Amino acid sequence: MRTRLSLSVRGKRLLRELRRLRDEREMSPEDVARQLGWHKTKLYRIERGESRLILDDLDELLELYGVRSPERESLFQLGKDAWKRGWWLAYRDLYQGESFFVMENDAAKISVYAPNLLPGLLQTEEYARASIQAMHATGDVEEMARQLAVRIERQGILARENPPEVLAVLDEVVLRRAVLDEGVHYGQLSRLIELNQTPNITIQVIPFSSGVYMGQEGQFTIFEFPDAEDAPVAYQEGLFGDVYVEDSTDVARYTLAAARFREVALDASASTEFIRGLLKETG
């Protein structure tokens, strides 16, 4: 299932609340459009997130639905926050869309299952630079510099006052596949040990001795959000495009693969010791 999620979690929550208010008043979208003098398709597009809801229109809707304080102020604040421009828009020419950045920015928990590549959130700047240079298709220096800036900017969520919980389950191959500079590789392994001591970050390693396991064929991320009504979203990056999965049945398959990852992984403490062993080999 391929979707494009451009709304923030706050925006989706606002639209859900507006649909609830309309349903409680037993009004159809056509009823609302007629009373507000809107085109009959306008509310359909707003409620589906296909058209931006400006604050004047939100004010009209809340007035029609008879919403009073403090609920009115709460919904109006959601409206102000829903379509805020994110830092990533300055780099939108590099990527297919802003969906990934929106979800990563809004998530309460980010779980990354990595059988092949080290997740960008965990990379040192030096490692990120080396990996971007190695994997870039054209070698365009300016474009690689901008990709590096994006990767480092993303890590800003880890320095927030209330950062998201991050779980990263890494295959041993991810840790052993070094960039060309051994010093950079050593620094990256050291950084992973530091991160695993951080309260909101858990890093687990799947050693080669665990054998083949479910989910090994592809890297994926599961985003979970603060509001229980905002269902988890699974994300998988591919050579021919990104896939965002929202359907509960499909997300359940990713959740099962995630559980299999964790079953064969070392716990956080043992994983730290494992990485220390790799450091000794590298040093």
What is the secondary structure topology, with strand pairs?
Blueprint: H1 9-24, H2 29-36, H3 42-47, H4 55-64, H5 71-82, H6 99-106, E1 109-114, H7 125-135, H8 141-154, E2 165-171, H9 172-176, H10 182-195, E3 201-206, E4 220-224, E5 233-238, E6 241-245, H11 248-264, H12 268-282
Helix pairs in contact: 1-5, 4-5, 7-8, 10-12
Question: Which structural class fits the helix and strand makeup?
Answer: alpha/beta
**Judging from the principal axes of the Cα atoms, what is the shape?**
elongated
Overall average residue pLDDT? 90
Strand order of the largest sheet: 3-2-1-4-5-6
Protein model, in words:
With 283 residues, the protein is an alpha/beta fold. It folds into 2 domains: 9-82, 434 Repressor (Amino-terminal Domain) (Orthogonal Bundle), CATH 1.10.260; 87-282, Endonuclease, Chain A (2-Layer Sandwich). It has 12 helices and 6 strands. The chain has helices at residues 9-24, 29-36, 42-47, 55-64, 71-82, 99-106, 125-135, 141-154, 172-176, 182-195, 248-264, 268-282, and strands at residues 109-114, 165-171, 201-206, 220-224, 233-238, 241-245. It has a 6-stranded mixed β-sheet, with helices on both faces. A hairpin with a 2-residue loop joins β5 (233-238) and β6 (241-245). The longest helix has 17 residues, at 248-264. The protein starts with 8 loop residues before the first helix and ends with a helix. Residues 1-5 have low confidence and may be disordered. It comes from Nocardiopsis terrae. It holds the Pfam family DUF5753. Residues 18-72 form the HTH cro/C1-type domain. InterPro entries: Cro/C1-type_HTH, DUF5753, Lambda_DNA-bd_dom_sf. This is Transcriptional regulator with XRE-family HTH domain.
